[in-house]
Amino acid sequence: MALIIFDCDGVLVDSEPLANRVLNEHLRAVGLDLALDESTALFTGLSMNSSVALIEARLGRRLPARFVPDLRAATEHAFRGSLQPVSGIASVLERLRSPSCVASSGIHSKIRRSLELTGLRRFFPDGRIFSAEDVSRGKPAPDLLLHGASRLGFAPADCIVVEDSRPGVLAARAAGMRVFGYAERTPSRVLAAAGATVFTEMAELEALLPD
Predict the structure, then answer these.
(1) pLDDT tens per residue, range 159-202
(2) DSSP assigned state of 182
(3) Residue 71's closest CA among 42, 28, 37, 108?
(4) How much is the pLDDT for 99?
(5) Looking at residues 57-67, what average pLDDT do you find?
(6) What angle do CA 77, 81, 85 make, to 5 degrees?
(7) Best label site of 43, 92, 125, 190, fewest CB within 10 Å?
(8) How far apart are CA 36 and CA 114, in angstroms?
(9) Which of 82, 103, 135 marks a domain boundary?
(10) From start to end of 11-131, where are the E strands?
(11) Which of 151, 94, 158, 81 is nearest to 120 (CA)?
């Protein structure tokens, strides 16, 4: 039996447009003036630590101490008003027979809040939620996925990862896991080039997953 490891943002909850808009606004405020599609391509799927490192490298200086707390607060505010589950994912989870978990680049409180706001928390008890906070290196490193698999007693070869970003796909491949790439917002060619089997609607995922 396989363990199904779901990313959260963009796979379970339709958070990417909201989060990327908020991030883009905060980037502009600190002097990194990027088009929304450019910042989306750069930062989608990265952990906060990886994002901060990339932002500071682009700026050539350290970010203000309040940047991350203010960004997280603004993102949560946007989520409270508008966050929805990814279309079709609730049906997939309701019919899923394999064990599953979440492994997300977000912090634990954000993952849980997102799942609660969208009605998906019932599918993922505390012992099946894993965060970049749990490991030293976030995606695209494989650490988070390997950590979740180990905690639940599964070998990497017995895991299937569902991702929507290039860093997430690269993490799964580095972990030695099969990976399906959800190409609703990320171009299919990007996910395929990173090593994913690509699908574009959640109804397709059900046919890909084991019975």
Answers:
(1) 999 999 999 999 999 999 999 999 988 899 999 999 999 999 99
(2) E
(3) 28
(4) 97
(5) 95
(6) 110
(7) 125
(8) 22
(9) 82
(10) 100-104, 129-131
(11) 94
Task: State the pTM of this model.
Answer: 0.85
Residue 54, token pair as written in the block = 């990339």
Between residues 41 and 198, which one has the greater pLDDT?
198
User: What token pair was written down for 101?
Assistant: 């978990």
Which of 61, 82, 103 is the last residue before a domain boundary?
A: 82
Token code pair at residue 182? 């959800």
27 and 115 belong to one structural domain: no
Cα 59 to the chain's mean position, in Å?
A: 25
Q: Where are the beta strands (DSSP E) in 30-158?
A: 100-104, 129-131
Peptide bond into 17 cis (omega under 30): no
**DSSP assignment, residue 204?**
H
